[in-house]
Amino acid sequence: MAGEQVVWKYMNLSNYDRLTITGNTLTKKLSAQWDGAAISANPVYNNGYVEFKAIEVNKNRMLGLSSAYTGSSYLNIDYAIYLQSNGTIGIYEVGINRGVYGTYAANDVFRVANDNNVIRYYKNGTIFY
Questions:
Q1: C-alpha closest to that of 80 among 66, 101, 69
Q2: What's the mean pLDDT in 79-96?
Q3: Is 43 within 8 Å of 114 (Cβ atoms)?
Q4: Were both Cys, which of 75, 77, 101, 105 would link to 95 (CB 3.0–4.6 Å)?
């Protein structure tokens, strides 16, 4: 079953200096801030998901699903995987830290999915939260 490809959208003009969007690939340029602020132009419905690969393990990053764009802070992401620069995996839900759930390595693949109206978090195809 083929999934719908994400269509990324810059949230403001200043993000052109912070992000590169090529097709369905979003790449964060060098910056030490939580300033990505990109959203999908198409919604994620029931049984939809966002998936990404960890390229390196020495940077903090968050990615997840939200019902609406309310700001570029991590506090505004409804369901987020937080890859920490110490190699650990955190979960944040509406800005609340749900804890640490193991470690990760470069090339691990993560998914935040809406599975039959239940949010699940995957690492390399295995549910971990």
A1: 66
A2: 94
A3: no
A4: 75
The residue type found at 129 is Y
Write phi, then psi, for 93 (nearest 5 degrees): -130, 115
Q: Which residue has the higher pLDDT, 81 or 16?
A: 81
Nearest partner of 38 among 49, 56, 26, judged by Cα? 26
Residue 44: per-residue pLDDT? 73
- Express as a percent the part of the chain with pLDDT over 70: 66
- What's the CA gap between 68 and 76, in Å, rounded? 9
Q: What is the pTM of this model?
A: 0.79
Tell me how far apart the alpha carbons of residues 45 and 43 are, in angstroms, rounded to a whole number: 6
Tokens of 114: 């809406």
Between 49 and 106, the more confident residue is: 106
Nearest to 53 by CA among 123, 102, 120: 123
Q: How far is CA 39 from the centre of its chain?
A: 10
The residue type of 12 is N
